[in-house]
Design goal:
The structure holds 2 protein chains of 2 kinds.
Chain A lengths: L6 H9 L5 H13 L1 H15 L13 H22 L3 H8 L6 H50 L31 H9 L21 H5 L15 E4 L15 E5 L28 E5 L4 E4 L3 E2 L4 E2 L23 E2 L1
Antiparallel strand pairs in A: 1-2, 1-7, 2-3, 3-4, 5-6
Helix pairs in contact in A: 2-3, 4-6
Chain B lengths: L6 H9 L5 H21 L2 H17 L10 H19 L23 H5 L12 H14 L2 H12 L4 H8 L3 H23 L8
Classes of the chains: A alpha+beta, B mainly alpha.
Chain lengths: 334, 203
């Protein structure tokens, strides 16, 4: 029996599940009845099954978190929209009163003062929290890039600076001593396209500046971030031993800026347990662990040994040659 | 048994201020949406951006959503539009001419379903080494013109019915059908050309 003109298309629709039940049943019957139809069906099926080979990698694990961060930041838009969509009659009732008495004016002023007092700190806190989450999300992105890099280097993070004798990671008091900051290790992730430059920005840090278009065009020309504020995070000192990625412990590998080395020099601070200044002047810091977790901590005493992530055990001052002696001693530096 | 809330109920809850409703929606759909955009654009970075932007758009426009409609096609509509915008902006992309008809007139197409149906040679997968299968199929899909690629991805990988594909792509149902037919036959044609670079078709 000859097939209708559109038989091939119907056969394809059958295999894609696009036919109505009754049509699909007729097609099944036809395939079962005729050896030629069965053969044609098999061939179409094999062509379509080729598409099964089109696998896609899963999205980054933090994608849903990133969406929610942005939703949180976008919340005021919804509030504005909800207010503007109030029925006209509701708005009309509010403004139909011709005059407000003095007592009403005083009460209104008191209400406004109260609302400002209650809501503004609330909004401010919400903004801070949103920024904190966005920065944590960026640390998650960095971890993705570090992991991809480490997969090709036996679990090790990038290392371009810090091990060279006679070169300091901090500016030496002697100007003739060259400096190779730890940030060069972080920049390698940008240069090799493992991490986007934007991911190194934490908006909570007011002075943060993303790399501009010209700099991004010349990304291969640099060995380090063109501007220290292009990178809002510090990382574990690669001049000393470090844990490999993926080990089941939360050894800090990245965190917000170390408050002891702001400005590229060692600043002696009154308290050793001071937080990073990136969030509200020192409310806490995001810490990225070697197992991929990002933890918000309100104290720098953190990690497998609960030691100070900004300092190494034995040092009280720094010239740029110091390094941790044990991989679990966290030492997050610029 | 308590059934889980529908997408539309979750969006309504979100509008009422339920703190976790939108998170459930995101968790429910972001993986599939990411796969769709990734296959459509061929770019992981674009897929991440488009998925985020699409959910933001849903959030912002939630109040305007007609609760009588289904949310998932709406979400995919937004994502498809944003993915198309991305493809338009991406000037470096190599475009192949749209030499397959997309308006229903498939008679001029050199390789129709008849050729695929009548193939007597080794099965397509048998001609490929294990390691290169995915790469060749991906490259072939990527070579399809965007209007064909998006309909193929929606139909094959995401199992949307015709009506919802028409809604997502904002085109008539008949055009969806003709584009899908063209997409499959173009896929077969390009795949064969990839296998026989000198144009030596064995059909």
């Amino acid at each position: 029996m000859d097939h209708p003109d559109n038989y091939p298309e119907r056969l394809m629709e059958y295999h894609l599940g696009l036919l109505e039940d009754e049509q699909a049943e007729r097609m099944r019957h036809e395939i079962a009845r005729s050896a030629r139809s069965a053969s044609q069906s098999r061939n179409i099926s094999q062509w379509l099954e080729l598409l099964d080979e089109y696998h896609t990698p899963p999205p980054p694990t933090h994608l849903a978190d990133q969406v929610m961060c942005r939703i949180e930041q976008a919340s005021p838009l919804r509030i504005t929209e909800a207010v503007s969509s109030l029925p006209p009659s509701s708005k009309g009732r509010v403004f139909r009163r011709p005059v407000l008495s003095l007592r009403e004016l005083v009460a209104l002023a008191a209400c406004i003062t109260l609302f400002v007092g209650v809501l503004v700190p609330g909004f401010s806190q919400q903004r801070s929290r949103a920024r904190r989450m966005m920065c944590a999300s960026n640390l998650g992105s960095i971890y993705q890039g570090v992991s991809q890099y480490a997969a090709g280097f036996n679990g090790h993070m990038p290392q371009t600076a810090g091990f060279v004798p006679g070169i300091n990671w901090l500016q030496s008091p002697r100007p003739e001593v060259p400096r190779m900051p730890n940030s060069r290790n972080r920049y390698m992730l940008v240069r090799l396209r493992f991490v986007k430059p934007d991911s190194f920005i934490c908006a909570a840090r007011g002075s943060a500046r993303t790399m501009n278009a010209d700099q991004i065009d010349q990304i291969d020309q640099f060995d380090d971030f063109p501007d220290p504020e292009n990178c809002s995070f510090d990382s574990q000192n690669m001049a000393g031993p470090t844990l490999r990625l993926g080990e089941r412990t939360c050894a800090p590998i990245y965190a917000d800026r170390n408050p002891f080395f702001e400005g590229g020099k060692f600043n002696t601070l009154a308290s050793l347990e001071i937080n990073s200044t990136s969030h509200d002047g020192g409310s806490g810091q995001n810490v990225l662990c070697s197992d991929g977790r990002v933890v918000w901590t309100i104290t720098p005493m953190f990690g497998p040994r609960a030691d100070n992530i900004w300092q190494i055990d034995e040092a009280t001052s720094y010239t740029g040659t110091e390094y941790q002696r044990h991989p679990t001693d966290s030492f997050v530096i610029p | 048994m308590v059934s889980s809330p529908t997408d539309e109920e979750l969006l309504a809850d979100h509008l009422r201020g339920h703190p976790n409703a939108f998170r459930v929606l995101v968790d429910r759909h972001h993986l599939e949406l990411h796969r769709f955009v990734l296959r459509f654009t061929g770019s992981s970075a674009a897929a991440e951006d488009v998925v985020q932007d699409s959910f933001i758009q849903v959030h912002i426009a939630a109040a305007s959503f007609d609760p009588q409609r289904k949310l998932k096609p709406w979400l995919f509509t937004i994502a498809a539009n944003k993915a198309r915008d991305y493809l338009r902006r991406r000037t470096r992309r190599r475009e192949v001419p749209l030499d397959a008809p997309v308006d229903g007139d498939s008679d001029s197409d050199g390789l129709r379903f008849f050729a695929l149906m009548a193939d007597q040679g080794p099965t397509p997968l048998e001609t490929l080494q294990e390691a290169e299968k995915g790469a060749i199929v991906r490259k072939t899909v990527d070579q399809l013109p965007a209007p064909l690629r998006e309909v193929l991805v929606l139909a094959y990988f995401h199992h949307f019915p015709y009506k919802e594909m028409a809604e997502i792509l904002d085109i008539p149902l008949g055009t969806v059908k003709s584009r899908l037919h063209s997409a499959v036959s173009q896929f077969g044609k390009l795949f064969r050309e990839g296998q026989n670079p000198q144009g030596q078709h064995d059909v």
